[in-house]
Amino acid sequence: MWSAEHLDTVSRRGTRPVVLEIGRETGAGAAEGESGLRAYTEGHIPGAHYVPFERDMVGAPAEDSGPNPLPSAGDLERRLRAWGVHDGSTVVVHTRQNPAVAARAWWVLRWAGVENTLFLDGGLAAWRAIGGALDTRVPPPGAGTAVARPGSLPVLTARDAERLAASGHLLDARAPEAYAGDPRRPGTGHIPGAHSLPGSGNFTGGRLRDAAELTARYGAHLDGRPLGAYCGSGVSATTTVLALASLGIQAALYPGSWSEWITDPARPAATGDRPGAPEPSAA
């Protein structure tokens, strides 16, 4: 986690990190992404590369996956090198509006072995608030040498998530109404045993809540048992992983999340505002 002030200080010392502005360009986020790209070309953090979310942070969906599966190691490595990332580089990710998009990029890059990937708290708004300069020049492709090492962060499969709901703490980062679902509508609800903690609650005024607030928010689940998070499609749950990481606590991500869970009609669903009984799972 970096503040805008820290990024400014480091940059003035001549040790500028690789800065990535995460936006959306295709699919459901097309309009947002196109306007985001236009805004980037009109002014961005000096040296920042524009990173289309669906192209660079998402792999090819399959019939039994959610819409945002993990990208392949080869694709990620090519992109890291084009951004000028080397093994040991510091990478700072941010977005203009939705912190969950930057949190997903933060998680994907750390999962791929880019250990020094940092989330810019408050995003571009925080940079502008301190009087940070904006640039219209688009940086040329870099010549990085980074090697992608997928698996550098813990990942849950559907079976893992089911087991964790019974043996640890599985946290649902969706809005309360999505978590509750409707017993009359198949495919709604939540993984039995999962607890509702919306990812939006990790932020206030576009910035991550402080340690005391986050500790209070997650306190009931900080008993030493393993933690995992999921959401609708593997994006907003990364804010849960980020929030816990800011407290020095590791949580696993279920990238497929609810949209993958419901591709198998045999998987159970609970409805209502309570976790429900977790399903017994094989050892």
UniProtKB/TrEMBL annotation:
It holds the Pfam family Rhodanese. InterPro entries: Rhodanese-like_dom (IPR001763), Rhodanese-like_dom_sf (IPR036873), Thiosulfate_sulfurtransferase (IPR051126), Thiosulphate_STrfase_CS (IPR001307). GO terms for molecular function: thiosulfate-cyanide sulfurtransferase activity. PROSITE patterns: RHODANESE_1 (PS00380), RHODANESE_2 (PS00683), RHODANESE_3 (PS50206). Residues 39-136, 164-270 form the Rhodanese domain. It comes from the Bacteria. Gene3D superfamilies: Rhodanese-like domain. This is Sulfurtransferase. The keyword Transport does not apply. It catalyses: thiosulfate + hydrogen cyanide = thiocyanate + sulfite + 2 H(+). CDD domains: TST_Repeat_1 (cd01448). Keywords: Repeat, Transferase. Residues 264-283 are annotated as: Disordered. The keyword DNA repair does not apply.
